[in-house]
Amino acid sequence: AQSVTQPDIHITVSEGASLELRCNYSYGATPYLFWYVQSPGQGLQLLLKYFSGDTLVQGIKGFEAEFKRSQSSFNLRKPSVHWSDAAEYFCAVVVNGNKLVFGAGTILRVKS
Amino acid sequence: GAVVSQHPSWVICKSGTSVKIECRSLDFQATTMFWYRQFPKQSLMLMATSNEGSKATYEQGVEKDKFLINHASLTLSTLTVTSAHPEDSSFYICSASPGHTGNQPQHFGDGTRLSIL
Q: Minimal CA–CA distance to A5: which of A104, A74, A108?
């Protein structure tokens, strides 16, 4: 079955430090992949998406992600984290045409 | 662009009450809308997929008579939790997509926190 694994439940980084959130997927075909961010008590905001083409995709708020087929990964990165980036981040893959399967999420804490 | 409005944002009601949650796409036509449930500190679980003008498709284990979904127009879908009980308390989130295919991103509402007393 298709699945998404986010191995880190919590990550804490210092403000200004670089960030990488891990995501691994299990899917037979070329996946459609997404990263969403959720602030407490709110819905999800799309950060970026990968469908095909260039494996390094740029998103909003300075985030980027790299699709690596050989590693079945789609890790999210940001070179310098801001305190406002503290939130929960979800990786997701499209299955069965248009349904999203989400990872368990990674909570990012930013310390000053 | 791609704004989805969900209302209400918070509902507290007595056990046995039916609760309706609205999901509207404000600046695009939503061919497909999705309803999710999120338990505390957990990920989103898809409940059902609805296409405008047709019956919703429910995920395995989701009671369609308990969670009534209507998608009567291209900008509005509603989820009605019928005869709600405390175990139905959760965070419900809708999303909307302008197409049927996976390369059309889903845009999410801000969610509805439902508390049944």
A: A104
Bridge partners of residue A101, in order along the sequence: A93
| Per-residue tokens: B117 | 């007393």
C-alpha atoms less than 13 angstroms from C-alpha of A76 in its C-beta half-sphere? 30
Q: List the single residue in A43, A49, A103 with the smallest CB-CB distance to B43.
A: A103
What are phi and psi for residue B36, nearest 5 degrees?
-120, 160
Q: What is the Cα–Cα distance from B74 to B52, expressed in whole angstroms?
A: 6
Write down the pLDDT at residue B108: 94
| Residue B95 · residue B44 · CB < 8 Å | no
- Helix or strand or coil: residue A104? coil
Give the whole-angstrom CA distance, residue B100 versus residue A52.
18
Q: Which of residues 71-100 of B touch A (CB under 8 A)?
A: 91, 93, 95, 97, 99-100
Sign of CA dihedral A96, B114, A7, A112: positive
pLDDT of residue B83: 96
Q: How many residues does chain A have?
A: 112
Among candidates B32, B43, B44 on the partner chain, residue whose Cβ is nearest the Cβ of A98: B32
- pLDDT, tens only, A88-112: 999 999 888 888 999 999 999 999 9
A12: tokens are 């804490």
Rounded to an integer, the average pLDDT of A2-20 is 95
